[in-house]
Amino acid sequence: MAGVYDQLPLEGMPRRLYSCTPSRLNAWLDCRRRYRFTYLDRPQPSKGPGWAHNSVGASVHNALAAWWREPYERRTPLTAAILLTNGWITEGFRDADQSAQWLGRARDLVSGYVGTLDPSDDPVGVERTVATRTKIIAVSGRIDRLDRRGDELVVVDYKTGRRPLSQDDARSSLALAIYAIAASRMLRTPCHSVELHHLPTGEIIEWRHTEESLARHLGRAEEVGVEAATADERYREVMGAPGPVRARSSGAASGRTSSGTTSAPASTAAGNSGAGTAGNGGPGATGGSVGERPQVGPPAMSAELDAVFAPNPGPICGWCDFRRHCPEGQAAAPERRPWDGLAE
Ligand code: SF4
């Protein structure tokens, strides 16, 4: 992500805008220590190995995005299967057999899904970045697909996880609400509907926001932004400015990679409130290796800063990429194997 703050003159005074994505805001809400590892500590502490379920998700998203970029006559289920195969990400699987088995499943998912689409009905946007700002936050993110239905836009989000989805997932999603607001403002077109397209079941979960419910989500985003910005400021005062964020790469053929930070396949928010201020290990290399990658530990942290960025241990810790650096997380949940998030 780019620089954390922008400057916006407001009433003659410089005012810092908190620049964020929905993922960043959700990271703050889920676990402040994970937020710090993800967005502030530089170099970023080493993550664990990639997750196979993330590889499946990224491969499917990439194939569906590429499908819409094909000329109309090639928008067929077979093309979707070919795109999926050509961009298949193998990271995190137990072995080649498991990867091949899931490639077959994912191929069926994408070809079956595009079979339900009208290839002539071009979306307004695919993997479209949208952004908006208030007096407090500048928020941006990427929408899987933006449709036009009648006079309105509809935000479409693809889901590939094993957990069945409910309307509450669509209603309560901060990300989807912010995408709707940003898309509406950028394209000057009303946008109240958000949809989760759950490929494994073929279900489409829709929620139609009101202006009031969208405003509530944006207000919530601002509240979170103020909290996180205040914590960021304190981090910078104590630790100095974070360095540039390093891009991570995996085997992805295009934009989306299998890398995640915490992506529990049955995604539950971390449960209990934060406790404990145990150290995060010393600065610099922690030794050991995953492949050839050098291992980086988090910087030494004062008790005060560690409290600002308190851990929030719970079941989700088993899926946290930074669990290795977090004693509380290790105590809270067992280590997961990279392929444990796959629905067998
Ligand atoms: S292991 Fe759990 S408590 Fe520790 S950083 Fe990750 S999510 Fe937070």
UniProtKB/TrEMBL annotation:
Occurrences of domain PD-(D/E)XK endonuclease-like (ranges): 21-189
UniProt keyword annotation of Cell division present: no
Name this protein carries in UniProt: RecB family exonuclease
Pfam families, per database record: PDDEXK_1
Highest classification ranks of the organism: Bacteria, Bacillati, Actinomycetota, Actinomycetes, Streptosporangiales
Molecular function terms from GO: exonuclease activity
Keyword Cell division: no
Compositionally biased residues, Gly residues: 273-290
The entry's keywords: ATP-binding, DNA damage, DNA repair, Exonuclease, Helicase, Hydrolase, Nuclease, Nucleotide-binding
Region (Disordered) residue spans: 233-299
Biased composition (Low complexity): 243-272
Source organism (scientific name): Nonomuraea guangzhouensis
